[in-house]
Write a structure and sequence with these properties.
The complex is a heterodimer of chains A (134) and B (123). By secondary structure, chain A is an alpha+beta fold. Chain A has 4 helices and 5 strands. Chain A has one domain: Histidine kinase-like ATPase, C-terminal domain (Heat Shock Protein 90), CATH 3.30.565. In chain A, 38% of the residues lie in helices and 27% in strands. Helices cover 45% and strands 18% of the residues of chain B. Chain B is built from 4 helices and 5 strands. The A-B interface holds A 12-13, 15-16, 19-20, 23, 33-34, 36-38, 40-41, 44-45, 48, 92, 99-100, 102-103, 105-107, 109-110 and B 20-24, 53-58, 61, 83-86, 88-89, 92-95.
Chain lengths: 134, 123
């Protein structure tokens, strides 16, 4: 299922598989239970976004180390319609789909770094990093 | 899609979520539960999430939807057993589930339903 930490997101079952893989890697990176829960929740939101808004895509899950601490980096990418107004997409409650509009803004609060690159017709890439505390 | 079993105990339905919920299973549970509430005339629903490791916005909305739906069908819902890390994450995510009654464990949840209905079910 995984290829160098890269996983497909093409079905609801894949979203569950992404959650399980992110949990396993977060434990490997030495994260506390609360940080594991936050990063797995963020991964679930972002994986579902890829499925719902772009019809599918992929995520790369890797452990990162900046010399002082270890963390987890997740890179989600798709070739979907893209996001025209990124600032607006990050506002809680804003949605173009059937959801609550908490996915992007909410998952940004759950991680330490959140980088979103998107343009209409060019797909979306979101890279998030969560560092282990202590 | 995996189905979540719904158990009946007196006039209460008990659901214990033991699987990693995908979105289809969540929607299936809502439908199954609505049918069971009407078929059994249940007055209360307890959802045990002791084994649930994460609640994202989709699963959180499911809990709120179930509570609202059961209210319309004359049943009260109590969500029990939320893990501390899940509660912290839900609030940070932006979902406080204000309309959902909670209790710390199954026993307190059943007692809360008994209290709502004016009797003590723990005896």
């Amino acid at each position: 299922m995984t290829d160098g930490g890269r996983m497909p997101i093409a079905s609801n079952a894949d979203v569950v598989a992404v959650r399980q893989q992110v949990r396993a890697v977060a434990i490997e990176a030495g994260m506390s239970l609360i940080d594991q829960t936050k990063v797995v929740t963020a991964a679930s939101e972002l994986a579902r976004n890829v499925l719902v808004h772009a019809g599918g895509g992929r995520v790369t899950v890797e452990v990162v180390d900046d010399g002082r601490r270890r963390g987890l980096r997740l890179a989600f990418s798709d070739e979907g319609p893209g996001i025209a107004d990124v600032e607006q997409a990050l506002v809680d409650g804003y949605t173009t789909g059937p959801g609550l509009g908490l996915g992007l803004g909410g998952s940004r609060r759950l991680v330490d770094q959140f980088d979103l690159t998107s343009a209409p017709g060019e797909g979306t890439t979101i890279v998030v990093t969560k560092w282990a505390r202590g | 899609m995996e189905r979540v079993p719904i158990l009946k105990l007196g006039d209460i339905l008990i659901i214990s979520i033991q699987i990693d919920l995908d979105d289809q299973s969540v929607l299936g549970l809502q439908e199954d539960l609505a049918e069971r509430v009407v078929a059994t005339g249940a007055r209360g629903v307890v959802i045990d999430i002791t084994a649930v490791e994460i609640i994202d916005s989709f699963i959180g909305r499911m809990l709120a939807t179930i509570a609202a739906m059961c209210r319309l069908l004359d049943a009260d819902t109590v969500v029990v057993g939320m893990r501390p890390a899940v509660a912290i994450t839900l609030v940070e995510l932006g979902l406080s589930l204000g309309g959902v009654r909670t209790a710390l464990d199954l026993e307190k949840g059943v007692a809360a339903l008994g209290h709502l209905h004016g009797r003590d079910t723990t005896r």
